[in-house]
Amino acid sequence: MPVKDRVVTWYIRNVILPRREIIDKPGFVITSLSGEYHTILLRDLFLPELLFELIENNIVQQYDMKGRQALYSAGKKFGYIYSSMSSFPTIQNSSKKEFSDFAYFLVRFVEGTYAQQAKHKLELDKKIFTISFDDYIICRHNGIGHIMTEGGITGIWSYAMQDKSIEGVQLECQGRGNERCIVLCAPEKIIKERSNKFFREQDLSDQKFDNIYKTMNAIRPTKYSSNSLKKLLNAGFFKFKRGVLSYKGHRFFACDSYILYFLEEELIKLENGEQILFDTCFEYGKYLRELYAGVDYQKFIPDFFSALGFGDIFVIPSDEIKIASIYYPWTHLSEKSKYVILRGLMSGIVSSSLGKKIEFTKYNISVKNYLTLTIIA
Questions:
Q1: Is the sign of the CA dihedral 304, 108, 99, 190 positive or negative?
Q2: 243 C-beta neighbours (distance < 10 Å), count
Q3: Residues near 13 by beta carbon (within 8 Å), at least 6 away in sequence
Q4: CA–CA distance, 221 with 215 (Å, rounded to integer)
Q5: Of 40, 137, 192, 226, which is most buried by a Cβ count within 10 Å?
Q6: Could you tell me the sign of the dihedral formed by the alpha carbons of 14, 42, 211, 36, in that order?
Q7: pTM to 2 decimals?
Q8: HSE-up of residue 223 (Cα within 13 Å, Cβ side)
């Protein structure tokens, strides 16, 4: 059996059939994990690969090493907190066999979701994790990969080792002309033996799946959105082939919603970073509207983004242009977020639809038993 077919078979048997990914509820994409004491339900989003490529490209072009550090920090913080929320096994609470079995599962999941092939090597006594990929998301095109390749993977390994000082470096990358992408995660001393160009981030927080998160992100019936991802897949609006979700040939990947919050938090620390991030998302929003080829944003936005997990979305009839998302993914960072990424995306889509520049510069949130986000132009 070809390698990819074997991976897909494993993915269906171990991920889809046990309903670890819930995609049949409008407004929601949920990862279901079996925790030690209860089932863990995490809010996922399907996100466009090209958007992340543009963010990395523009941030690195504008800020060079400071930008690279910010991207890496966002990725590592995301990987660490995602592992914590998921109650992944750690070297402290599992046997070597249990830990090795989990590492195998995680790599196979990554292989079936983010790449075409993955191989890994564990050296637990030295806290070393090496993984190589073929066709990994984002960096395969731009050769950067600080968010999801270096940062995200390092955050997961740092949590697994319960050692925040562990860092990671991408030694090779297909986007830079190498045959494969290779990431090394290890203590700094070992990293220095292989590369003198790497980043550090130790301000990492543990967050656990609790009743607040469970309540705020609970699946609820939608009033305005009727399309789930499964429905749009069945209708052929999205395509799913060999583990890859795509829209008109453009790849989307599943990712916990924390990634948008951490990206914003880190990038707006850069001088003028908030505007660069907004403008980049605006640029992608315009491109997405052109890809869609229609101008009815009042239909496209709810249909498209609700299916990708952004909540129950609708355009509010008003003298101003207002877009609301009921049940927008909530995290502990929600109440201080400026929602730059979503505002930029929607600004680009609406501007391209109407043929004039529209910017969602204002927003408000309502926090009850769920989060409602309203953006206003």
A1: negative
A2: 17
A3: none
A4: 14
A5: 137
A6: positive
A7: 0.93
A8: 6
